[in-house]
Design brief:
This protein is of the alpha/beta class. It is built from 4 helices and 40 strands. A hairpin with a 4-residue loop joins strand 39 and strand 40. The chain is flat and about 110 Å long. The relative contact order is 0.05.
């Protein structure tokens, strides 16, 4: 919702410097802001970008030097918090979904729907499924047989919660998430790969949020578990029989192989890979692109491939950076040794020629 700089100043509890009647239509990052938008300058690292920004105004901290730009300013004690309020006004949340079942949705007669449920166009809710009160299924969501969706959940377009899998309350699944696809299990006999039936389920706890196109596979037996409060990024792979503890963080493109257990408050950074059948202790941190092949004790930070303790990996990285210089020194030493050997050989030959 567009507003003048003066109006935004009141919303953000910020001081206006410049034209108070300047009309602002949106909020954006300082690198990609356009004319009519306001951008945030939150610390000194953003100051060099100010002369190049196309923004029409800036929201800055009280220590910002106003002489460094001719752009109008909003000056706030807590600029990040103030910018959140400005952005919320300029780009308000959409209105809540109206309860009801769209005429193109297919809901089995014996499915149980709680109060105030909203089921949008082309959703499918199969036999025996339960959808909790105030939950929203956006277009194209599939809920399989006997699946359970808790209360106040939000499933974005093209989410699939497959047969018998369960979601707790206040779960958010972004577009393309698949809960309960078959685990990757095969036996090879006489050179042929035979599928192992995957008969388990997935259990997702309360207050979990899972990013777009992430997959959580059903267990071979029993259950794959995502603990309450856990937040999972886009394009993450959680394999069969994995247990992710409460309040863990799984970052984009990481993968966890089958039957591995993560404790509570574990962080797995982007593109890290964890082999199967190991344990990652409570509050451990797995660094970006790490390859974890053995248990990680609680609280430890690991990095590298194969992953090792952070301090040891840092020392290894320092040595790795010095390898070109070390290689030169080794070649020089090899040349010196060869020259010395030639001199020794020459002296030994001379000694043999003497009477």
């Amino acid at each position: 919702m567009p507003a003048t700089l003066a109006q935004l100043g009141q919303i953000a509890d910020a001081t206006v410097r410049g034209n108070p009647e300047l009309r602002i239509s949106g909020a954006a990052g300082i690198r990609n802001a356009r004319e009519g938008e306001i951008a945030l300058v939150v610390d000194a690292s953003y100051v060099p970008l100010v002369p190049r920004t196309a923004a029409s105004a800036l929201l800055v901290a009280t220590d910002f030097d106003p002489a460094s730009t001719q752009l109008p300013l909003l000056v706030a004690e807590e600029p990040a918090e103030a910018f959140d309020r400005v952005a919320a006004h300029l780009h308000p949340d959409p209105p809540p979904a109206e309860p009801g079942i769209h005429e193109t949705a297919v809901v089995a007669p014996d499915a149980l729907l709680g109060a105030e449920v909203a089921i949008h166009a082309h959703c499918v809710v199969e036999s025996g499924a339960r959808v909790g009160a105030h939950t929203v299924l956006r277009p194209g969501v599939f809920v399989g047989r006997d699946a359970v969706i808790g209360e106040y959940c939000l499933l974005h377009p093209h989410v699939a919660v497959l047969d018998r899998c369960t979601l707790g309350d206040r779960v958010v699944l972004h577009a393309g998430v698949v809960i309960g696809a078959d685990g990757y299990g095969y036996e090879t006999r006489d050179g042929v790969h035979y599928k192992i039936p995957q008969r388990g389920i997935v259990e997702v706890g309360d207050d979990v949020e899972i990013g777009a196109n992430t997959t959580v596979d059903r267990a071979r037996y029993g259950r794959t578990v995502v603990g309450s409060g856990t937040k999972i990024d886009d394009l993450v792979m959680v394999a069969h029989n994995v247990v992710v503890g409460d309040h863990s963080l799984l970052i984009a493109q990481c993968g966890i192989a089958g039957s591995t257990a993560l404790g509570h408050h574990v962080t797995v950074a982007a593109q890290a890979g964890i082999v199967g059948h190991i344990e990652i202790g409570d509050q451990a941190i797995v660094g970006a692109q790490a390859g974890v092949v053995r248990d990680v004790p609680p609280g430890q930070i690991v990095l590298g491939s194969p992953a090792q303790d952070l301090a040891r990996e840092r020392r290894a990285l320092v040595v790795h950076q010095r390898l070109p210089d070390l290689a030169k020194r080794v070649r020089a030493l090899a040349t010196a040794v060869e020259q010395l050997q030639q001199r020794i050989n020459h002296l030994e030959c001379g000694a043999e020629d003497r009477p």
